Amino acid sequence: MISPDWFVFLSVLQSLNKETLCRIPQSINTWTIHGLWPLQAQHCCSCWPMFHSDVQELEAELSEHWPSLVTTKSSFHFWRDEWRKHGVCAACVEGMNSPPRYFQICLKLRAQFDIHKLLEDAGITPSCEQPYKVTTHTHNLQFVKICSTDDREVWFQVKIPLSHNLTLGCDHHGDAEDDLATGSNRAWSSSPGHPCPPQVPFYYFPIDHQQPKQPCG
Fold first, then answer.
1. Is 86 a catalytic residue?
2. pLDDT tens across 53-89, in order?
3. Rounded (5°) CA angle 197-200-202
4. What secondary structure does DSSP assign to 104-154, as a single string?
5. Who contacts 212 (Cβ-Cβ below 8 Å, separation ≥6)?
6. Can 172 be counted among the known catalytic residues?
7. Name one GO biological process term (predicted).
8. Which one is catalytic: 59, 61, 86, 209?
9. Most buried among 18, 32, 168, 182, using CB within 10 Å?
10. Could you give all domains of the chain from N- to C-terminal order, each with its CATH number?
């Protein structure tokens, strides 16, 4: 058993509980990438710049699978922020030592972990009325509470632990907390989700492009 070196986050309704003005592009109807975050990063080169030309060839694919969901930030500025916060800490890993390579890996992982297909195959579909439950305590499924929906737990994010070589790893949640305490995982606290206790009903809401923050009224 080894501790995870990375977490890849796949989100639906990523900005659901934030006060910022959010939007979901009409082309987005399924899970998107939230980020690929290295843990226990020792060397982060914050001076490594990123230019639009770095992701120009990937722009169409990134727009489909990793769009900006806030009206105040363009897609490129959102991707550049992800590179500045997380990519520069991943750049010491072979195969990710440039913005194009980092984003290519993220897209490859998104294709590898096709959450929508896995859920669909298991008969789990978005609904405003159908509750689901987890039988064991897990930190890999992240939830938020939506006050406008009678304080229901809403599933919005999957956290996938990966080992150093980007294969599935083991989620030792305490390690993540230690990283946060030491500052080596600078963006962990920016994720608003929390684990859902066992046997507590939760909801997997559909996407509503017109009311992205309140898809079920």
1. yes
2. 999 999 999 999 999 988 888 999 999 999 998 999 8
3. 105
4. HHHHHHHHHS-HHHHHHHTT----SS-EE--SS--SSEEEEEEGGGTTEEE
5. 13, 15, 16, 22, 23, 24, 69
6. no
7. RNA catabolic process
8. 86
9. 32
10. 6-203 (3.90.730.10)
